[in-house]
Amino acid sequence: MAEKIVPMDVLKVMVIDDSKTIRRTAENLLKKEGCEVVTAVDGFEALSKIAETHPDIIFVDIMMPRLDGYQTCALIKNNQTFKTTPVIMLSSKDSIFDRARGRIVGSTQYLTKPFTKEDLLGAIKDYVPQ
After folding, report:
1. Residue 29 and residue 122: Cα distance in Å, rounded?
2. Residue 37 DSSP SS3
3. If one looks up domain 12-125 in CATH, what number appears?
């Protein structure tokens, strides 16, 4: 059996995306690595789930209805309890403006879609203390 890239026995990962396909893909990849995965379809649903589950890292899509990824990230980072939680932006848009806006609202990293298993695990390895 292949050795896991990152020991993720009790790691809680949140994936926020309005695309069922993206949520399911990320969830399957991360569960195979031993992560506990919590998903949400938009920022509103995510905020209540974050308060309940206290994820170790959050992946958030930028383009979502009601509360977009930038707004969601800003709300997470403005909360004293979660301000140090890594938030990774996910987007099919890859302009310097989009990346800069993500940094302004407090995102830790910016991944472009389609992402790979290595992208997700690399972000976790880089930003979640072992």
Report:
1. 13
2. strand
3. 3.40.50.2300
